Amino acid sequence: MKNRRKDPSASFRAIARLGLVALAVIGGGGVALSLNGGSQPEEAKHVPPALHDVAATPGKQSLVLAGGCFWGVQGAFQHVAGVVSATAGYAGGSASTATYEMTETGQTGHAEAVEIVYNPKQVTYGQLLQIFFSVVHDPTQVDQQGPDVGKQYRSAIFPLNDEQAKVASDYIAQLGKEGAFGRPIATSIEVGKTFYRAEAYHQDYVYNNPSQPYVYIYEQPKIEALKRLFPEQYRERPVLVADQAR
Fold first, then answer.
1. What positions carry a catalytic annotation?
2. Where does the Peptide methionine sulphoxide reductase MsrA domain lie (predicted)?
3. 89: domain CATH number?
4. Which of 8, 39, 152, 187 has its CA 20 to 30 A from that of 142?
């Protein structure tokens, strides 16, 4: 998938030649993607909030999530009010393999992930998980998100402590019991994993490349779904990695 997704010069014709162009329908019913092969992804939906949450503490808190291409995960959370930063990176493997080229082999244990730093006085861990499961990705797809296939695109939560792990586990069980999705949730909870920051050219990619075909088809709809389903938590101006470096 490397040349199709990561090459900013990719064209719709090149994507179509690979048989991976999707029909993106953006509207009241969410986003529907039709792919050649594989199961139809779940549409964006407002899933129930978590019954339990992480206790708020003074200062900032963090969480690490993986839900397919880190461009879209980062891009969506950058528009959530209360998020202080969202950084693209890798989690699940070792420091020696925390590069894009190695992660793309699918053999490193890494997933494309995003580290989210947030203000718990404005948004909670549970609310961020609700957004993650509602609009950021399809948690029922196994080692895949849309056209991207491989363990590096798996749905995963990387808890930073026992409390985060318990809340995440309880929430997945809750959504399963309530039948929030038409298929079983495939999200894994992977404890004790370190997050490694991705290369600079991956940061703020959705913001910097809104008309890139992959971004336009697969990533921008996540932001639109966030705005539509969580208007009270949506902010128009994203918090960018580039702004923090100044």
1. 69
2. 63-214
3. 3.30.1060.10
4. 8
